Amino acid sequence: MRKFCVYGKGGIGKSTMVSNIAVALAENSQRVMVVGCDPKADSTRNIIGKRIPTILDAFREKGPGRMKLEEIVFVGFNGVYCAESGGPEPGIGCAGRGVITAAEMLARLGAFDDLDLDVLIYDVLGDVVCGGFAMPLRNGLVDDVYIVTTCDSMSIYAANNICRGIRRFAVRGEVLLGGIIYNGRSVVDEPSIIDGFAGRLGSQVVGRMPMNDLIPRSEIHHKTVIEYAPDSNIAETFKKIGKAIVENRKKAVPEPLSDEELNEINREVEDLFREKTLARQSA
Amino acid sequence: MDGGRFFGAFRACSGITDAVVLNHVPVGCNWGVGMFNNISSQPDIRHACTVVHEREIVFGGEEALKRALRLADKTYDAPLLVVISGDVPSIIGDDVQSVIDSLSLKKDVLWLEAAGYKGSMRNGYEDALLKLGSLMKECNVKKRSVNLIGLCPDDFKVHADLKEIKRIIEALGIGVNSTISMCSLEEFCAAPAAELNVVMGQGAKLAKYMKNEFGVPYIEVDYPYGLEGSMKFTEALCGNLGVEYGGEKYLDLEPFERTYLYLHEMYGTSVSVTGDFRCNPMADFLERELGFEIEVKSCFEEDRSSFEENVRNSNTMMLFGSSFERGLARELQIPLMRFVYPVFDQVCMCDYAPYAGFRGAAYLTESIINSVMGFDGKSRNNFSYQEMMSQ
Predict the structure, then answer these.
(1) In a domain, B84, yes or no
(2) Residue limits of the Nitrogenase/oxidoreductase component domain (chain B) (predicted)?
């Protein structure tokens, strides 16, 4: 089974990427499962068409002894299995522990064994904020990690910070950085910035997603692009990214950048931003 | 063995003998503090638990706390509910105060945060007493009365010790106003009526608070082990209350004379001592009155990590400590005298066999001689205790 997880700054497009990649991979008769690790529980909404009951909802209502796999794993478009960890209400409890509990419940109920999966994808919220959200990085739960980022400085900063978390487990041989997925949905859309960032990390860019209005339009209908516009170029791009990840052999222990190195990238972004503004004004 | 801040808070709060303690913790923590408390006080079931489980860790323990508060309010006939919030609720940030505020309970509720990782058992005890101190009220001063501060209901021999200490004090014409932490809520609230606070090893923060708030002066004394220790204790009380000192009249050397030969044989025995604030006064008794050699001494407040290793590397022939030292004593094949919390493998049924005070000196010495005489086999140095005593 190919197992990987996707991290990235909040709102950067992780769930969009994961749901489209999952559906794309499932087109080739692969048995794919997506586990959303975010208390908002909206990672799989575009695969199913609506939000699904979460693992922790069932855990709370029934307790660990009476939960059933079919109550927490749902089948979406192209037969993709979907589960959402869920979590507590904002401001109480411990969402990080919730992610760990949800993963334990899935394993206990045989989700990873009984479903005979080919591909397992974890979609993890914004940042490695605590041990709970680092759970997929530990104990061999996944082979490698992919980080979604735009050219925005805060997005790159978050990606770099996630690499610090990955490195902690990578040096112990538990997980590796598979690469960066570039999302062009930003004021400055310059893939070379992220090429440089990935290079400095000792990694690579495994895919580039240009800005395209088909993505928000499909999401308005709670669908993946693969389902909403299957013949579009953007659907093809998602398929290529999915294939690149599954076949990826180039994995690395990331070398997170220093603050000064991040500032250098920020200055490059600022220069590009200035050029773009000037060009717009002269036009 | 330091159980951390939670254990200290529990010991302070369960010392209000008619209050109910509601532990907002996982069941294991509740069992731990309860077990040490209930070994020799089995009918004492005045503590409840929210039983924090994984569900509460993920979703917060506030609902569980609400349920437990309602149930405790309904179940127990008690004037006060004390909620102690332990490690897990502190980590996940349960808003205990808002839960209490949201309920209309018949009983008064006081809560305190006591995550075990936030400090030592001693600190937990001190801070919990301070929090309970807010319940105290201004009272008319009772002349020649004292509060005894620092005794806990789960201390080994505490009932017998307290009885003996009270006997000594009352014979001097001094009354015991409140014994903290072994008194009812009413007695606790009326503690400011005492003329003097006597801090016996712990509880100094409360004593300072009472001095500032109610003008009750305080003294800090050692736990009264041995004849000398008991005389020093008596002297300190008399000196501070202007009572004529008459400690010598309690001295009864006859029991010691009856076992003179055994005491002579045991003179110079190498021993090691570990414990809470009782450690130093016990070591003083053993060294100065029985003539033992102290090999290793370790108080809970100090670094205990090397205690076991130091004992192994010493000539220790007898160990003084808690039930936690049982393993070490077995390993070294030496007798263990339990005298300090926690003791969970022996019971104290009789309140006329103290270790503290003048009478306690004789009982303590008797127990030491008996544990040596009754110790079968030979130690790691091929030393026979029975041969020693039969010479």
Answers:
(1) yes
(2) 6-372
The span from the CA of B90 to the CA of B116, in Å, is 10
Tokens of B257: 């004379």
> Of B205, B240, B275, which residue sits at a domain end?
B240
Whether residues B301 and B332 fall in one domain: yes
Chain A hits for B89, CB-CB cut-off 8 Å, are none
Residue B113 belongs to some domain of the structure = yes
> Contact at 8 Å (CB) between A208 and A233?
no
Percent of chain B with pLDDT over 70: 95
Max Cα-Cα span within chain A: 67
Chain A hits for B95, Cβ within 8 Å: 92
Domain assignment present for residue B215? The answer is yes
Indicate if B221 and B273 belong to the same structural domain: no
| Domain co-membership, B23 together with B71 | yes
Nearest to residue B119, comparing CAs of B274, B3, B272, B260? Answer: B3
Contact B200, B143 (CB under 8 A): no
B interface with A, Cβ–Cβ < 8 A, is: 54-60, 62, 91-95
Give the domain extent around B206.
145-240
Amino acid at B86: G
- Label the pairing between strands A205-209 and B218-221: unpaired
Put residue B49 in one of left, alpha, beta given phi > 0 → left and psi -120 to 50 → alpha: beta
Q: How confident is the model at residue A89 (pLDDT cuts 50, 70, 90)?
A: confident
ipTM of the complex: 0.73
CATH number for the domain spanning B180: value is: 3.40.50.1980
Note whether B226 and B196 are same-domain residues: yes
CATH label of the domain that carries residue A130: 3.40.50.300
B91 and A98 within 8 Å at the Cβ level: the answer is no
Please check whether residues B21 and B105 belong to one and the same domain: yes
The residue whose two tokens read 């130690």 is B379
- Could you give the CA distance from residue B361 to residue B355 in angstroms, rounded to a whole number? 6
Chain B: give the shortest CA distance to residue A243, in Å: 36
Q: What is the DSSP string of B264-282?
A: HHHTT-EEEEEESTTHHHH
- β-strand pairing of A119-124 with A2-8: parallel
pLDDT digit string (tens) for B328-378? 999 999 999 999 999 999 998 888 999 999 999 999 999 999 998 888 766
pLDDT digits (tens, 9 = 90+) for B116-155: 888 999 999 999 999 999 999 999 999 999 999 999 999 9
Among B71, B100, B135, give the residue marking a domain's end: B135
Q: Which residues of A touch B (CB under 8 A)?
A: 56, 59-60, 63-64, 87-89, 92-95, 97-98, 101
Average pLDDT over residues B73-87: 95
Q: Are B91 and A63 in contact (CB < 8 Å)?
A: no
Same domain for B212 and B88? no
Determine, for residues B54 and A63 on separate chains, whether the beta-carbon distance falls below 8 Å.
no
> In this structure, how many other beta carbons lie within 10 angstroms of the beta carbon of residue B347?
12
Neighbours of B374 (CB within 10 A): 11
